[in-house]
Amino acid sequence: MKEFASFRLDSENQCLWREGERIVLQPKPFAVLRHLVENPGRLITHDELLDAVWPETFVQPQVLRTYMLELRKTLGDDAGEPRFIETMPKRGYRFVAEVREVAAGVRGTGVEAGTPGETNAVIVGREKELERLRAEFKLQAGGQRRVVLVSGEAGIGKTALVDAFSGEASAGKLATAAGGQCVTGVGGREEYYPVMEALGQLCASPDGAAACCTLQRLAPAWLAMLGLAGAGVEQPVAAIGGERTPGSLCAALEEISAAKPLILILEDLQWADGATLNLIAALARRRARAKLMVVVTFRPRGAGAGYPLKQLRHELVMHGLCAEIPLGPLEKKAMLQLLGRELGMETAPRQLGEFIYRHAEGNPMFARVLLRHLMSERFVVRRGSDGAAEWGLAADFDESNFGVPEELTQMLELEIERLTAEEQSLLEAGSLMNVAFPAWAVAAALSKDAVETEEACDSLAQRLYFVQSAGHDELPNGAQSAFYAFTHGLYREVLYKRQTAARRAQRHIRIAERLGELFAGREAHVAREMAIHFDAAESWQRGAMARCEAARYARQRQAHAEAVELLEQALRHAEHLSDKEAQEIRRELAQAREAMKN
Asked: Under a CB-based contact definition with an 8 Å cutoff, are residues 37 and 95 in contact?
């Protein structure tokens, strides 16, 4: 497997990996990238690249330009200041990043594994979790079958942790590791999809011949589905009939692990089919001693993480049949180290690191996407020269104008679009408030019943990892209203911007008006908040009047500086006011300023 920067090129599985996250490329762009990566540092002419990717087929050279644009977008590269692919005008391309040959881990062909030692994978902030996996490995090597559940939200580093563990294991030849990945949409159509991928890796490993023979004796139907023939198989495997039963495969895996400990890794279990979940349960429940370790990764909440997965986890935990390793956000120090490694530094510059940490909120994948976006837009520049050069934010960088990068927007949109239209509307309405939002505001924005809306929001908070319950608040009429919060501000931004301007304006006005109704007789207490919603709807006149009301309330409390600020804000949109209204605001502003002096 070829590694460059934070990427790994997996020729075996025809895909690209970025810190444990699979990046699916179409066959031709992948072939172009592979040829470049396999020939680093030298000029690859247009003709050579065309011959390598389209042998015996005439293709216009211009097609390469399209694929280069796609690859640069995927890699976060900049044609002006290339980190990976350099264009040699009128000649071809050159891959300029350093390329290293690394052990394939579970991504390759049946990796040989040994007692964990030093890691080959780049990982920070997960030392405790890595120690847990090492401890489980020792128990497995002693004959105790182990099932380990690694959970966490998308991009939090589940695969990176597992890859680091398998990278350590590759130091010796005391165990065999093989893995497969569940794919969204496949689980409902193809049973045992990740299991078959793992078995394919196992059979292609250095010990594959022995594994095939064991499968041939104990689980022939499974081997037949792979289309492989093991050493000593006398009849064509394709001719073997029968059903794939969990018991037969469990027996085969146990016998295989008797010769050498076996680590079976199944990822993204939230998209697994029921048959795969039942197989994991069977492997965990069998009482015979076996040097077998099953490591699964999954998202505990979100689309796909339904009842069957929850039931499996509950049963394994309740009967003490598994170990759990939940992954939370990275701490600030670890995040700065991670970003520093991406930049080739010991730690990221303070201002840059804190900006990305604040927006990524501890999510490693989000942080890398943000960094690549900043670099591609040249918001991050390298100052100094030679060995003293360091990366940092550009002097003209304006944080207030920084939006969600397109690459990250598309990732989050995929998560959101897996929800129903009604659920998407609920979250869009919640985004109109802020990171935290009350159920009554969602109901007001959508003109829905408050009780039904709160129940729907509560259901979302129980299922989605990016929405959580944040307590209750008492309304002026004595009723209780639940509060919720987006765990990532980036989700809130995407949900806010995906609404049309007209729809947002309509919903903002409904929230402002509902605030006035809730605080009838005491509107001044919430006038400032009402003004924010009126301004967001570009209802400038109503916003200005609400600020004047808030300013009068501030003067009653002797908060004259606050009153001045509110009145000055109201005057910024004086062109939307009548002459009489503007004159009244100026008069009140003069009085507030005079009161400040006294």
From this structure: yes
| DSSP-assigned beta bridge partners for residue 345 | none
**Cα Rg for the chain, rounded, in angstroms?**
29
Q: What are the structure tokens assigned to 499, written together? A: 């609404």
Tens-digit pLDDT profile for residues 91-124: 889 999 888 887 554 443 333 333 344 334 457 8
- Please identify which residue in the block is written with the tokens 């339904």: 306
486: helix, strand or coil: strand
Look at residues 96, 57, 61 and name the one whose alpha carbon lies nearest to residue 75: 96
- Angle of helix 193-203 relative to helix 208-218, nearest 10 degrees, comes to 130
Give the pLDDT confidence of 357-394 residue by residue, as tens digits. 989 989 999 998 899 888 888 888 877 665 556 788 88
Strand order across the 436-438 sheet? 436-438, 480-486, 467-474
In this structure, are residues 170 and 1 in contact, taking their beta carbons and an 8 Å threshold? no
DSSP structure string for 52-119? HHSTT----THHHHHHHHHHHHHHT--SSS-SSEEEETTTEEEE-S--EE---GGGSSSEEE-S--S-
Task: Please tell me whether residue 4 adopts helix, strand or coil conformation.
Answer: strand
Strand partners, 150: 297, 325
Those residues whose C-beta lies under 8 Å from the C-beta of residue 395, and which sit 6 or more positions away, are: none
What's 345-397 look like in SS3? CCCCCHHHHHHHHHHHCCCHHHHHHHHHHHHHCCCEEEECCHHHCEEEECCCC
Please give the DSSP secondary-structure letter assigned to residue 170: T
User: Is the CATH code 3.40.50.300 the one for domain 105-326?
Assistant: yes
Which helix H or strand E contains 177, and what residues bound it?
strand 175-181
457 vs 484: CA distance, rounded Å = 8
Q: Which residues contact 405 (CB under 8 A, 6 or more apart)?
A: 369, 370, 372, 373
Cα 451 to Cα 439: distance, rounded to the nearest angstrom = 9
Alpha-carbon gap, residue 320 to 170, rounded angstroms: 29
Q: Is the Cα torsion angle 69, 72, 73, 79 positive or negative in sign?
A: negative
**Amino acid identity at 586:** R
Residue 527 contacts by C-beta under 8 Å, 6 or more apart in sequence?
Answer: 546, 547, 549, 550, 553
**How many Cβ atoms are within 10 Å of 524's Cβ, its own excluded?**
18
Residue 554 and residue 547 in contact, taking contact as beta carbons nearer than 8 Å: no
Mind listing the pLDDT tens digit for each residue in 318-339? Answer: 989 999 999 999 999 999 999 9
Nearest alpha carbon to residue 261 among 174, 380, 154: 174
Distance CA 544, CA 573 (A): 7
Fold exhibited by the domain 2-101? Arc Repressor Mutant, subunit A (1.10.10)
Strands 15-18 and 21-23: antiparallel
Query: What's the predicted TM-score (pTM) here?
Result: 0.71
